[in-house]
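re: ur question from earlier - yeah i can do the single chain one, its not a big deal. heres the input i used so u can compare w yours
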Amino acid sequence: MFSSVKKLFTKASQNYSLEQALLAYDAEEYELAISLFESLARDRTPKALYYLGTCYFWGLGTESNQEKGLRLFIAAAEQGYCQAQIELGYIYRHGYGVTADCKTSLQWYERAQATGNPDAIAEVAHCYEYGEGVDQNLTKALELYADAAEGGNALAQFTLASFYTKGIEVEYDPITAFYWFKRAADQDFADAYIHVAASYARGEGVGTDLNKAISWYAKAAEHGDAVAQNNMGYYYTTGTGVVQDEEKATFWYYHAAKQGHAIAQYNLAERYRIGSDGEKKLTEAAYLYLESAMQSDKDAQYRMAMCYKFGEGVEKNLEQFVYWIEEAARQGQQAAIDEINTYMTQEIPQQSVPETDSTILE
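and the output i got, formated as tokens:
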């Protein structure tokens, strides 16, 4: 069945315009787009060569043919088409269909940079930052990131903000850092969301604003940021800045814990242990405590010890109790220290304490 886009072109003349070809491409009518780009490519139209190369190289609407796609990209790039030059830089950086070659990658990025394209400038900055195809030069990288950021490149804005946050080649400046994080976030650069949220929450580089902080944490959480998900769990648990909601708290802790976030694993385990949602889940709690404890969370280590001591979610195991209570105490977990002190002052019947358990007294 013909799509609406296909029907449109069956009524058009054979002298297809580039705009019509791009319309088909944007509508993901790739087979039709290829036929239209092919006719335009015969006239060496650089933009048509680039889009036709994209279809062949990445297999859009046709079987992937990276060799043909590469030739088309080069043909467009040699005519000065910036996007083709950037694409070639990307291909050679990562070695897609070619041998990875950072120097060739940089050469193509620099040719695109000469046009003043902010995306190309950001890529050249990346090469200088990490020493890819050129000697590492953070001063040069900073200068280029600043140019690209001013030109509107979100990645450059985010990276520039990170330089100011970490004091790389510039003095630590939370105000300037927030400015660039916010510029990137406003362009939906997801990695910036958490930084904007934290700035509002802590009052770093901007006035403290809990409502704005939660709004940005929510956006970051929706995009899968585990820290933001854990924070949203906390807000819904405590009713801080939002209406308290146990179900939503569990939801966000669960998603952060699933990503291996140690604090969220502990927080979710606590909810399962006490039955915050109306049902205790001791086995699940013990599992999460262990996952968090193995990441050196001292509170989870203490809780894991208690699970083994009382057989909550696991079988009682004095040896494991000793191991985890000592791990927590070494990190200064006060309840663990108190537990050890209490254990040391108790008189325990000789027959109930195996000789191997004396390690807790050290």
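The mean pLDDT is 92. not sure if urs matches, ping me
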